[in-house]
Fold each of these.
Amino acid sequence: MRADWARRSGWSVAWEIKRWLKCWLAGTPGRLGSALRVRLYGFGSRGPDVFIAEGFWAEYPDRIRFGNSVGINRGCFINAGGGVTIDDWVLIGPGVTIYSQSHDLNGDPSLPLALRDDVRKPVHIARGAWLAANVTILPGVTVGQNAVVAAGAVVSRDVPARTVAAGVPAVAVRSLEESGSTVTT
Amino acid sequence: MRADWARRSGWSVAWEIKRWLKCWLAGTPGRLGSALRVRLYGFGSRGPDVFIAEGFWAEYPDRIRFGNSVGINRGCFINAGGGVTIDDWVLIGPGVTIYSQSHDLNGDPSLPLALRDDVRKPVHIARGAWLAANVTILPGVTVGQNAVVAAGAVVSRDVPARTVAAGVPAVAVRSLEESGSTVTT
Amino acid sequence: MRADWARRSGWSVAWEIKRWLKCWLAGTPGRLGSALRVRLYGFGSRGPDVFIAEGFWAEYPDRIRFGNSVGINRGCFINAGGGVTIDDWVLIGPGVTIYSQSHDLNGDPSLPLALRDDVRKPVHIARGAWLAANVTILPGVTVGQNAVVAAGAVVSRDVPARTVAAGVPAVAVRSLEESGSTVTT
C-alpha cells in the first residue's frame, strides 16, 4: 500500500525515475553538466546560451522560460508551478530560490496545509536583472529590467527596473543610473 | 597523530563510517531515498508516513521525534543536540535549518568558542505548522500549531499558534483564521 | 563553436577538469574528504588543523588563507576573487557564503552586468570569530576578533571585535564580555 504522501503527491514509477534523473543531472559537473541540464530538463523554452551550474533543481520545468545569455550559479532551486520567466542577460547567484506556488493560508482551516490546493502566481525576472547569492523570490513577483536584488534578500513585492532591493522583506535601497540605451548587447 | 579537531569532535572509525553512510543517504533519490533515510537514520521516533527529500542531514538523529504525515523538502539540516520534536502534518520547505544547540557566548572568554561546552535547548514544531523555504530555527524555539514561518525567516523566539511570522529576526505579521475545529484530519 | 558564457568565463578543458575535481572533492565524506579538500584544493596557505565538511566549494582557492584550528561545516561557498583571510579558531556554520567580489553596479549602463568587470574587495574573518548557520559575508567586510555573526545574517559592513551582529543587513546587537587575555589557547 502506498504511503499517504505518495498518494497526495501522485507518486508513480515515472515520478521516481524522473527524480533519479534530476538528481543525476544536479550532480553532473561543469560544462557537460550544464549542457545536459539545459537539454534534458524539459524546460518550456530557452535561448541558445544558458549556463546552469551544479546542484540545480526544478519542479515543473516545463513552465520555465529562459531567455538567452542567462547564467545560474550553484545550488539554485526553482518551483515553477505558477510559471517562471527569466529574460535575457539575467544573472542568478548561488543558492537562489524562486517559488511560484505556495500553500493556501486562506483555505479551509479544518484541513492541514498539505491537503489544501496550491496557490500559484507567475514570477518574472526581467532582462539584465541580477539576483545575488541566497536570494529568495516569492510567488507573483516581477523583478524589473536591470534591477539588482542584494544577497540574502527575500522578495515578496515587485522590484522596479534599475533599482537595488535588499532585506527581508526586500525594499528599494538605491536607484541605478539610467542608461541612454537600456541594455542592448 | 590525530588532528586537534578530531580529538575535539571525538573522531573514530565509527564516526567516519556513520558520516559516509549519512552522505550516501543524503544522495539517494526519490521515494527509495526517503524510505532509506527514514529507516536507517536512527531517529528517536517517527510516525508511519514521513517523507524526507534528498540532501537531508541530521546531527544527533536519535534526539529527533517525528510525528505522522510530516514532509521535508530538499536540503534540510537538523542539529538535534538539544532535542527536536516535529509533530503531525508539519511541512518543511527546501533549505530549512533547525538548530537546537549553540556555542556558549557567555562561557570562559579566555577559551575560543570551539573549546567551550555547547548550550542545548529543545525545539518544538507543533502540529500543522509550515516552515517555508530557507527558514532557520534557533535553539529553544517553539513554533505553535498551524503557524506559518515565511520564507527566509530566522526564528529566535516562539511563534504563537495560527500566526504568520516573517523576517530576520522573525516577528508576527498576521493571524490566521481560527477554525472551529483545529486540524483534525 | 563555444557558447558565449564559455568565452566570457574563459572555459577550457583545464577549467572543466578542475570543476569535476571540485565536485568530487565536495562529495567525498568525512575526515578523509576533509583531508582531501584541505590538501588538493590549492589554498593560498593554511595551518595544520583545518576541518572542511562536505559540500564545500571555492572559487579562486589560491586567494584563501586559512589560519590554524579552523572548522567549516557543511555546504559552505567561498568566492575569493578579492582575497579571503580566515584566522585561527574561526568557526563557520553550515550554509555560510563568503563573497569577495561583486558585479559592477556603477559600470557602463549600456552593458549587462555579466559583461562588466568584477569589483573585488578582500574579506577578513579574524581570530576566534563565529559565523553561524547560513550567514552571508559581502565583499570588503572584516569580522573582528571573537565576534559572532548570528544565523542568517547578511554582513555588508565591518563587525567590531567581541560584538554579536544579527539581521539583514547585520547590525550590532550585543557586546561580549572582554577577557583579560583575548583568546590564547
Note: Chain A has three helices and 18 strands.
Amino acid sequence: MVEVGLADVRDAAERIRGVAHRTPVITSRTLDAAVGAEVFLKCENLQRVGAFKFRGAYNAVSRLSPEQLARGIAAFSSGNHAQAVALAARELGSSAVIVMPADTPASKLDAVRGYGAEVVFYDRYTEDREALGRKLAADRGLALIPPYEHADVIAGQGTAALELFEEVPDLDVLVVPVGGGGLMAGSATVAKGLDDRVRVVGVEPEAGDDTKRSLVADERVNIPVPRTIADGQAANIPGEITFSINRRLVDEVVLVSDDELRDALRFAFDRLKSVLEPSGASGLAALLSKRVPSVEGARVGVILSGGNVGWKRFGELLG
Amino acid sequence: MVEVGLADVRDAAERIRGVAHRTPVITSRTLDAAVGAEVFLKCENLQRVGAFKFRGAYNAVSRLSPEQLARGIAAFSSGNHAQAVALAARELGSSAVIVMPADTPASKLDAVRGYGAEVVFYDRYTEDREALGRKLAADRGLALIPPYEHADVIAGQGTAALELFEEVPDLDVLVVPVGGGGLMAGSATVAKGLDDRVRVVGVEPEAGDDTKRSLVADERVNIPVPRTIADGQAANIPGEITFSINRRLVDEVVLVSDDELRDALRFAFDRLKSVLEPSGASGLAALLSKRVPSVEGARVGVILSGGNVGWKRFGELLG
C-alpha cells in the first residue's frame, strides 16, 4: 500500500519552493452572493505551465537520483502533465521524452518542445499509450513519471491545498476537481491532516463519474470513455493509489454538466477576469449550480486547477 | 494648486482597507524572457468593479460629510468610473446618480443599476455630459465625483502602486496606463515619493497621445477625439490637476498601437490566463512590443488597470 501523509506534502512544498509559483487566492463578492458562502479560489490556472500539474511533476522528478536524471525521464500525456514533466525535467537539468497522440494540436506540441522535450507519437486509435510509454522507458532506461499513480506526484499536487490553508486557515469545505484523482488525493490528505472536520468534496463531469460510482460501490468502477468538454477529467477509472486514498478521505463527489461548466467559464471570464479550462472550472461550476450541499454561510475553498485553453477554442466552447 | 503627496496615498490606503481588494501581483517567466526583464504585474482587473477606479471613487466618497452622503453623489461616465462611484456610494450608505450615454451597452447599465444607482441618460452627439452632470449635481445638491480631476480620486488610485511597492520594494521602472491621468498621477506620486530613482513611464494609445504631446509642449494639448480600441484611454486633453502632477513626476510617455494592444490581450489570455480590457493591457503591450526603452535586466512593475470586456466583445477584438 502506497501511503501519502501531510508530512510528505510539507516536504514537497519545500522542494518546489521558489520553482513553482505560490499562486494567488482570490475572492469575489459577486460569487459569494451567488453561492451564499465565503468562497476562496486558489488560482492554479496561474501556476507554471498553466495548471497544478507542475507541482507533482517537479516534486517527483526532483526525487530522482543524479544517475536517473542523467539518463532522462518519460511520460505519456496529451494534456497538462506533458508540459509539466517537460518543464520539470528542464528545470532539474534532465531530459524528457513525452508520448503524445499523433493528432495533438500544434500549440501543445510547441509548448512541450519549447521546454526542450522530445515528442514520440502514437496512434490513439490503435496503440496503447501506457504500454508504449513503459516500453520506451524500459528500452532507454528512462524514469516514467505517471500523471497520478505515484506518491510523489500526489504529494506535490497537495501543495496547492496546503498553500490555500496557510492563507485561509479556517475553511469549512474544500472543493476539488477529480480526474485521475491525484489532485483530489493530495488535497484531501492536506485537509483531513490539518483538521478532520473539513468537509472534502470532489467534482466530476457528469459523463466522467467513475470516482463517484467507485465510492458508492466501494471499489474501482470502470465506465465508458467519457464524452465531456472537461478533457482533463475524462478518466474512465480511478487510479489504484488515488482511489485507496480518496475512498478514505473524500466525503462526497458531486457532478456537473457540460452546460454548467460553460456557465462557470463565462462567469470566470466576466466576473473573475480569469481564464479557466473546463476541467479547471469544475469546482466553481459545482458551487454556482448549487451542486455542493450545505455550504450556506460556510467558508469554502476551491481549487481552480488549470487554464490551458486558447481563446479560439474558448469562444467555440461558449458558442 | 492641488497637491497630492505620498502621505495622502497612505491615508487613502487606510480608508480603502478591507473594502477594496488588495489585488495579487503575478509574474510570468515567459513574459520575463520575452521582455528581458523581471516583470511584476499588479492585477487591478481583479479589483472590485473590475478596474482600479474603485480605489479613487471609494476614497473620495468616504471623505464626504454625513450630510453630503445623505444627499447623495453624482458622476458622469460611460466606463468603469460609473460602476466605481455606484458601488462606493452603496458601500458608504449613500446614493448615486450616474450620467451615462443613451447608447450605453445593457451590460454596463445593469452593472451600475445593480449597485443601486440611478442612471440619467444624455445624447452623446448633442449634449455635454460634464455640463449636464454639474447641473444635475447643483439642482439636487449632490456631490460630483469626477473621474480624475480630484485630489482624493488621485490619492485613491495611487494605492495600487503603493501595494505593488510594498510587495516588490526594489522596482527600477513603473509602467502605468494614461487616460485622463489620475492613475498615472497617483502612481507617480507613490513611485517618486518612495524613491526618486524609480523611472516612471506612462503608456497611451497612439491615437490618444494627448499627454505625450502635452509633456513635449509643456502645456496641455487638445487633440481630436481619439479612435482606439482602448476606450478607457480615449481622452483628448489631460486634466489640469493630473497634468500638473504628471509634468513634474513622469519621466516619459510611450505609445502603443491598437494591434499591439490586441497582441497583449491575446498574450494575457493565453499565457497569463487573465482577462484584460484594451486600456488595461496597454502597459503590458508597451513592454511586449519593446516600446519602453532600457528595461533589459531591470525590475519592472506594471499596472494591469482593468478587465471589463465581455467575452463576445473580446472575441471580436481578437478577430
Note: The domain at 54-144 of chain A is CATH 3.40.50.1100 (Rossmann fold).
